[in-house]
DNA sequence: AACATGTATGAACACCTTTTCAATTATCCG
DNA sequence: CGGATAATTGAAAAGGTGTTCATACATGTT
């Protein structure tokens, strides 16, 4: 009931591992609500496009993100609904807890 | 509104990083509902007490877990309500998704 | 006090990860 | 086609992480 089999546990762990890197967490939070290009994400996070692209490959491989080409850019968006819902909840929780202003 | 400041983002990342290791995830899932001793966790996860203890130190440092001595053993339990709620939700989600039997 | 049990700690090792840089591929426009 | 802008890829460097083993500490028991 509150247990997971080995495969499920591994998958869950993989997911958390992806979220555990600050760059990747930033990427996911950036394209959680709307698609964003690699360059736009890089600019927003003040990182190189190369770095972002490397991380996006990992995020793609774990199906946390999906990219679609649009002209010369590629638009990425969070594709896993669990993750999106969970991140929204976490962000909410943190906001409530610290009661901060927009 | 859906953004976090740098500190909050760092903290969230740290939390996910802790969940991202299979041994630590196993520990947290083990003592999510009730306290468990180091030895009991080690047995359950088929790992050495030393290894579990090392990981518990990290989990303590990030306040994800709290331990209280009880005789010669120490009982550990998940102490972060966000994490507990979130893990419960994740487990639920996975169960729903894969529609598996108890 | 001596012993047994349970937990914590430190050092060492192997392994993996993140990041950067340079080079390559893809797409659009003149 | 040639040039410009975006994104991807591969290799290499640097640093970090998980695990084991041996040892120390803490608590209860005889």
Explain this structure.
- The structure is a homodimer of 102-residue chains.
- Chain A is 61% helix and 14% strand.
- The first copy, chain A, is α+β, with helices and mostly antiparallel strands and 102 residues long.
- Chain A has a single domain, classed as Winged helix-like DNA-binding domain superfamily/Winged helix DNA-binding domain (Arc Repressor Mutant, subunit A, Orthogonal Bundle).
- Chain A has a three-stranded antiparallel sheet.
- The N and C termini of chain A lie far apart (39 Å).
- The mean pLDDT of chain A is 93.
- Chains A and B meet through helix 1, helix 2 and helix 5 of A and helix 1, helix 2 and helix 5 of B.
- Chain A binds a DNA duplex (30 and 30 nucleotides) through helix 4.
Please compute the radius of gyration of chain A using only Cα atoms. 15 Å
Strand order of the largest sheet of chain A: 1-3-2
Sketch the major β-sheet of chain A: 3 strands, antiparallel
Q: What is the overall number of helices of chain A? A: 5
Multimeric organization: homodimer
Poorly predicted tracts of residues of chain A: none
The succession of helices and strands of chain A, N to C, reads: HHEHHEEH
Rounded mean pLDDT of chain A is 93
For the record, what CATH class of chain A applies? Mainly Alpha
Judging from the principal axes of the Cα atoms, what is the shape of chain A? globular
The amount of beta strand of chain A, in percent, is 5-15%
Number of strands of chain A: 3
Say which CATH homologous superfamily of chain A is assigned: Winged helix-like DNA-binding domain superfamily/Winged helix DNA-binding domain
């Amino acid at each position: 009931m509150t247990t997971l089999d080995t495969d499920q546990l591994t998958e869950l762990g993989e997911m958390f591992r992806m979220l555990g890197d600050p760059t990747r967490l930033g990427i996911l939070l950036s394209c959680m609500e709307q698609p964003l290009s690699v360059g736009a994400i890089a600019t927003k996070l003040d990182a190189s496009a190369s770095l972002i692209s490397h991380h996006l490959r990992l995020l793609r491989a774990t199906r946390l993100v999906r990219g679609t080409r649009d002209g010369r850019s590629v638009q990425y968006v969070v594709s896993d609904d669990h993750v999106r819902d969970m991140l929204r909840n976490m962000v909410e929780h943190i906001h409530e807890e610290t009661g901060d202003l927009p």
